[in-house]
Amino acid sequence: MFRIKRLYTFVLETFLPLLLATYSVCLFILLMQFVFMHIDTMVGKGVGLGVLAQLFFYAALTFTPMALPLSILLGSLMTFGNLGEHLELLAMKASGISLLRIMKPLIYSVLVISAISFYFQNEMVPRAQTKMWTIMLSLRQKSPELEIPEGSFYKEIPGYNVYVRHKDKKGGMLRKMMIYDYSDGFENAKVIVADSGKLNMMDDKQHLTLTLHSGTSFQNLNTRRTRNVTEKIPYSRETFMLRKILIYFPSDFEMADESIMGSRETGKNMHELTTYIDSVQYEQDSLAIQTAELFKKQVYAQTFKGERYYTASVADAKNDSLFAQGLDAYYEQLNIDKQIHYMQQAKSRSERVLSEYNYSSIQQSDSQKQLLLHSIQFEKRFSLALSCLLFFFIGAPLGAIIRKGGLGLPAVLSVVLYLLYYTVDTFGTKMAKQDVWPVSEGVWLSSILLGVLGIFFTYQALNDSAMLNPDDWKIAIQKGWAKFNKKHKSHK
C-alpha cells in the first residue's frame, strides 16, 4: 500500500510541473496570437500601461480554458514519454502495476481540472470576456495618438486631411502645409495652403488648435455638380497671414459601457444562457402563431369579402354560386375596368402580404441566429471542459507507446492532434451556426473524435501494441531496406 502511495506521489510530481510549464507556454502563444490579430487597435492610441495590463489580464483569463486542453495533452504525453524513455514505466509494469493504475492519480487530477475549467468558464470567463472586449471597444473608439508624418496625408483628424512636407522636430513647426477641410461636409470642402503652422493639444484634452501662417484658402461656391468642363465655376479665395482653427479631437481614454458586451452570448453564464434560450424559443412560437393568424385573416378573409367565407365549411362553399360558376368564368364576365381594378387590388394585396412575410422572416431569422449562438455557447461550456479529460486519455497512452520525452516528438504530436481537434471543432461549430446541423451534433463532433482516439490509444497502450512504437517502425523499415538492397544486388 505504501509503495502505491509513493508511486502516486512520484507520478504527480512528474506531471504537475510539466503541466504548469506547458500551460504557461500555451497561454503565451494564445496571447501573442491575440496581440497580432489586434495590434492595429492597441498601438498608436497613447494609452497607459495600466489599460494594456488590464487588457492582457482579462485576455489571459479568457484564454485559460482554451490553453488547458493543449497543456494537458502535451504535459501527459511528455510525462509518460519520459517515464518510458528512462525505463521507469517498464519497471512499474514489471512490478505488476498496470498502466491504468499508474494513470489513476492523474485521472483524478484531470477530473478536478476539468471541473475547475467548467466552473471557470461559467463564472469567471463571461465577466473576463466582457471586460476584455469592453476595453477593446474603448480602444477602437479612442482617437489615435497625434503623430503627423512627413510627405503623406494624415487622415486621423475627423473632418481634415493634413499634408506636411517637412517637420521641425525641435520647435514642432510644420512646413509647407496643405489641408483639406471637409468638416462642414464634402459639398462645402475647403483647401488651405499655408507656408507653416503648428498643431497643439489644448489643456482640456478635447480640442486641437491649428495655427497657420502665410496661407491661402480656396472654396467652391457652386455645390451643384456639372458635367460641362467649359462652364465657369465660382469659388472664393482668401489670403491670410495668421489663422487659427479649433478642431474637436478628444484624446482622453473613456471606458465604454460594459452592457454592450455583457449582452452578448459570451458574457452570460449558464443560468442566463438558459433563460435567454427559453425566452427566444417562446418568442419564436408566439411569432409563428401571430404570423399564421395574420395571413389567415388578411389573405382568406379579405379575399372572399366576408366572414361567412372565412368560417364556412367545405360543403357550404361548394353550394355557393360563386364557387359553382368558377372564378375564371366570373372574371371573364366583368368589363375591362373592373378586371383592371381587381387585378390592381390583387397585386397590391399580394405585395402587402409579401412585405409582411419578408418582415416576419427577417425577425424569425434574427432570433434564430441569436438562439443558435447562445445554444452553441451553452454546449461549449461542457465540451471544452470534457476535452481536458479526453486529451489526457490521448496523451498519456500515446506517451507510453512512443516512449519519447522532452519537447521534440511530443510537441509535434500534440500540435498535430490539437490542430486536428481545432479543425473539426471549427467545422462543426460553423455547421451549427449555419443551422445545417443540430447544435449538439456540431459542437460535440470534435469531442466524439477525441473519444474515439482516446479509446484507440488507450487500448493499444494497455495491450503493449507495437503498432505505434516508433522504434519498432524504425527496425521494420531498416529490415525492409536491407532486404531491398540485397535483392537489388542479387539481380545485378
Give the tally of structural domains: 3
What's the tally of helices? 15
Shape: extended
Distance between the termini: 65 Å
Outline the low-pLDDT stretches: 306-313
Rounded to the nearest angstrom, the radius of gyration is: 36 Å
Structural class, please?
alpha+beta
Mean pLDDT: 81
Major beta sheet, specifics?
Answer: 6 strands, antiparallel
Protein name: YjgP/YjgQ family permease
Subcellular location: Cell membrane
Membrane topology: Multi-pass membrane protein
Transmembrane segments: 7-36, 56-81, 102-120, 382-400, 407-424, 444-462
Chart the SSEs and their pairings:
Blueprint: H1 2-37, H2 39-42, H3 49-85, H4 88-94, H5 99-141, E1 153-154, E2 160-167, E3 174-181, E4 190-201, E5 207-220, E6 235-248, H6 258-262, H7 270-303, H8 307-311, H9 314-319, H10 321-325, H11 327-332, H12 336-402, H13 409-433, H14 439-462, H15 470-491
Antiparallel strand pairs: 1-2, 2-3, 3-4, 4-5, 5-6
Helix pairs in contact: 1-3, 1-5, 3-5, 3-12, 3-13, 5-12, 7-12, 12-13, 12-14, 13-14
Give me some keywords for this one.
transmembrane; 3 domains; 15 helices; alpha+beta; YjgP/YjgQ family permease; 492 residues
